[in-house]
Specification:
Strand content: under 5%
Helix content: over 70%
Number of helices: 2
Structural class: mainly alpha
Order of helices and strands: HH
Largest sheet: none
Distance between the termini: 27 Å
Radius of gyration: 22 Å
Number of strands: 0
């Protein structure tokens, strides 16, 4: 089995995409919630709503960065340990 490098392009992309999907999802939920529970009378009110939801999503994406990195790195470490075990030749005693 081949080992995985933690800073390879695919892993960095996975971390980036995961972090941003979390941020955009939170922003969408907040916008939906605020649209249902507030009255927006002007375009300025709507812009404030979207900007605020985007800011909260960005803050949460930033906050989840460490957790995503830790979890993905843990999975890679586990995979690499299995790869080491699989690549180690069996010792035979005769």
């Amino acid at each position: 089995m081949k080992k995985i490098q933690k800073e390879s392009d695919g892993i960095v992309t996975l971390k980036f995409v995961t972090r941003h999907v979390v941020g955009y999802s939170v922003s969408a939920v907040i916008v939906t919630f605020l649209h249902q529970n507030t009255q927006t009378f002007s375009t300025t009110d709507k812009a404030k709503l979207y900007i605020g939801a985007g800011a909260i999503g960005a803050i949460l994406a930033d906050a989840c960065r460490d957790r995503v990195n830790k979890n993905v790195d843990g999975v890679i470490d586990g995979y690499n340990k299995i790869a080491d075990i699989m690549n180690t030749p069996l010792v035979t005693t005769e």
